[in-house]
Specification:
Layout (H helix, E strand, L loop, with lengths): L6 H32 L11 H37 L2 H7 L4 H44 L10 E2 L5 E9 L4 E9 L8 E12 L5 E14 L13 E14 L21 H31 L6 H13 L4 H6 L3 H67 L6 H26 L4 H24 L7 H12 L19 H22 L7 H5 L6 H17 L5 H7 L17 H9 L1 H41 L7 H4 L1
Antiparallel strand pairs: 1-2, 2-3, 3-4, 4-5, 5-6
Helix pairs in contact: 1-2, 1-4, 2-4, 2-8, 2-9, 4-8, 5-8, 8-9, 8-10, 9-10, 12-14, 12-17, 16-17
Length: about 650
Amino acid sequence: MNIRIKKLDIFIARQFGLLFVGTFFICQFVLMMQFLWRFVDDLIGKGLSMDIMAQFFGYMALMLVPQALPLAILLSSLITFGNLGESSELTAIKAAGISLMQTFRSLIVITVVICLGSFYFQNNIGPTANFKLTQLLISMRQKSPELEIPEGVFYDGIPNSNIYVQKKNVATGKLYGIMIYRMTQSYEDAAIILADSGMLQSTADKKHLLLSLWSGEWFENMQNQQFAGNAAVPYRRETFVSKQIVLDFDGDFNMADAASLSNNAMGKSLSKLFNDIDSLNQRYDSIGRAFYNDSRHLYFAVPKIDKKDSIAAVKRASAKSFDFDKLLEKQKLEQKQQIFSSALGQVQNEVSDLDFKKLVTNDNERIVRQHQIEAINKFTLALQCLIFFFIGAPLGAIIRKGGLGIPVIISVFVFIIYYILENTGYRMARQGDWAIWFGKGLAPAILTPLATFVTYKAYNDSMVFNADIWRTMFFKLLGLRTKRHISGKEVVIDEPDYAHDNAVLLRLNHAITDYSKEHRLISPPNIIKVFFKYQPDHEIERLSGILEETINDLSNTKDKQVLHLINQYPIVALKAHTRPFERKWLNIMAAVILPLGIFLYLRMWRYRVRLLRDLRVIRQTNSNIISYIEHHLIATGEPGSAGTQQ
């Protein structure tokens, strides 16, 4: 098989390549700014060096490359074929006998190569960049912990300390409602500090944190070696108005421990994801079995007894019945309270235990789902490049508008649809509400038929995006219509025959009067004839044809009054008053679907009333034209009148 690269392929590939490079950097910049906006608080005021900032932006750019590629392909292909259509080059290509798919040939090959490159990038470079970027973000948050202490949650970012802050003022850095647990070697050495307010600041050498507290109390155990064997441990209590505490903390920038990122699915390759999914499933299955065995032992445990003993126990139980309520009534009040308290305590303990197991199980399922989603995402994001090409290139060939105007608007609209579908599917799959394959396949499943549709329409030179067609359809759906606009001609070859036109208009008035009496347009139409037994109205078509011929003849006049009068004729809808649709089966379906049938029936009744009003306007306009021609044109012997001909 001999594959020849034609000059047309090189020409289109060059046009696409230049635009692709430009649009790729534009999309990359927009995505980086959107990503940077999410983490701007982690960068400001941390005193990060230039090399750390360079690493941050470098890893961020590498991580966002697979997301920028589909957008760049969509925009560049749309602009490329929009430019070709706007400059009539696409028309010349088709006139030379080259089909649209042959025109796409070189770009399809380039797009497939980009798809493979995107998959390779996601599988090899992207995970490393994401892993390094996550490490940087964690380390940036740890660099100045006084800015990271949340409200209403215990913060353990400072060694040997847990800090709880009820409220904080970001502008002043002041903390309110402070509770601190300090531990050195064991829980017996713990100190509890309560304070109404305070401030946490880094020292100049970034080696320590200075904690200033106001209006508080200090509780501390005095456990040491000499009290190690005593049951009672002495403690110290101190009430203070103001106090300063120096906490050890190395604020110099260092990379966070990679072990804490082991569950980061986005930082793993495809083989690593599949391997970790198997490992996680085995580990979590063992945890689940352990939880099940605990529950089974708790609720379904039966003491081991011999067969003879069990038979005897059954006989004793059947011979003697127990009433637990009566047994409980025989107990004393203190014993009843003790029984109820013990039962309530056991129930609360079991509920707490089940809540903890549920939390662990849900977290395990979430981690596994995240790995499965990321494995599928490597394929769908690469496939998105090809789907976006078959949306952008055919749309550019249809709309035939280049530049950064309409193509950018269409690209943004398509991307918004993709983003909504992708984000919705991802969130629902991550939460476990949808199956993972359904959530991640939602966007491709909807955009692929769209790409097929626009490619088919572009291949067949469809006018689906012609503004005039959509405008006409919109006007027809809402029953709107344009006014007649006939202007005077600069050169007139045949003058109108006023006498003949007058006679035609006079006969037309009589015919309109007879038609109105016969059809009674003001009354509601017959439902059976409308939806099931359609009868065409040829009479109104004949009358409209006669009127249009007369208007066409009178439009050759140079008399401004005649032009003004013929512009008052309405444009008559010939079939809208007879049935909703052209096809019989559509009319039957409309009648079956009751709400739609009622709407179409009332709409057609409205068309009948409007036709009656149009016929009255036509008849009145005919009378005005007849009167004007008789008194001003035929009487004065204008060209085309009966007097001139005689």
